[in-house]
């Protein structure tokens, strides 16, 4: 391995863009590296956690060198390490537990924990298009989405990152959308069916709706994580009653 490695310009541009898009205090976990970073200020990343494995250390050294080429500093004096997981399954479970623990500590600017917000009322919202650089130096348009939740304490609107929302609320509240057409929010939810629900629907001869990037009923935009799902149409009032019922059963 060559310590004097020259990074491709595309990679340096990517590093710079990635860093500038991170909010201060945001966490970054490069896939498959066993590393967790935090952006501490406008010019510094901090390594907070590392899996105790030579590969992980090697990834960290490489990331440090890459960011140094675009003048982003690295601090790694105070790093938590955890043993390398035994299997991919263990690694996944440990990562999920860790991510959920981190997510549980997030708070709104008024101090209210995001985990205690009325997540069952969260509505996916399209924020805008963004150009991102992909590996071969080309750009690609990605859609930015957020889940809008109203804070119970200050009535402020919280726009949660969809992945964060998924971690806190689970798939049941994540795999759904409510279309907005001409700034008018539909009173119908589209909720992705589980295989069991699809089976029951097929047995009763009822029909759901197969969803692409556009809502077949309203023409509204569909969040990317819902593309290719088979959904049930549920009127808002019925849906809220059902969600409240489910909460009581837990
Ligand atoms: Zn608040």
Q: What coarse outline follows from CA principal-axis ratios?
A: globular
Structure summary, number of beta strands: 14
Tally of individual helices: 7
Bound molecules: zinc ion
Arithmetic mean pLDDT: 86
Q: Indicate the radius of gyration in whole angstroms.
A: 21 Å
Largest β-sheet summary = 5 strands, mixed
Unreliable stretches: none
Determine the fraction of residues in helical runs and give it as a percent range: 25-40%
Strand content: 25-35%
Structurally, the number of domains stands at: 3
Order of helices and strands: HEEEHEEHEEEHHEEEEHEEH
Cα-to-Cα separation, first versus last residue: 53 Å
What structural class is derived from the secondary structure elements? alpha+beta
């Amino acid at each position: 391995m060559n310590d004097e490695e020259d990074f491709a310009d595309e990679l340096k541009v990517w590093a710079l863009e990635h860093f500038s898009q991170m909010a201060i205090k945001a966490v970054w976990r490069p896939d498959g590296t066993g590393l967790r970073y935090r952006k501490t200020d406008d010019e510094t990343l901090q390594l907070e956690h590392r899996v105790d494995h030579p590969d992980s250390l090697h990834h960290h050294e490489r990331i440090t060198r890459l960011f140094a080429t675009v003048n982003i500093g690295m601090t790694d004096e105070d790093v938590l390490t955890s043993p390398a997981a035994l299997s991919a399954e263990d690694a996944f479970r440990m990562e999920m537990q860790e991510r959920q623990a981190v997510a549980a500590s997030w708070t709104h600017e008024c101090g209210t924990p995001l985990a205690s917000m009325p997540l069952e009322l969260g509505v996916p919202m399209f924020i805008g298009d963004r150009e991102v650089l992909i590996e071969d130096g080309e750009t690609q348009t990605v859609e930015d989405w957020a889940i809008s939740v109203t804070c119970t304490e200050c009535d402020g609107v919280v726009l949660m990152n969809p992945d964060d929302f998924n971690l806190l609320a689970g798939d049941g509240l994540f795999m759904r959308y409510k279309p907005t057409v001409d700034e008018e929010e539909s009173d119908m939810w589209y909720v992705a069916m589980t295989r069991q629900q699809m089976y029951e629907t097929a047995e009763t001869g009822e029909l759901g709706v197969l969803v692409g990037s556009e809502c077949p009923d309203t023409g509204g935009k569909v969040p990317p994580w819902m593309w290719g799902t088979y959904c049930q149409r549920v009127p808002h009032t019925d849906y809220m009653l059902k969600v409240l019922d489910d909460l009581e059963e837990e």
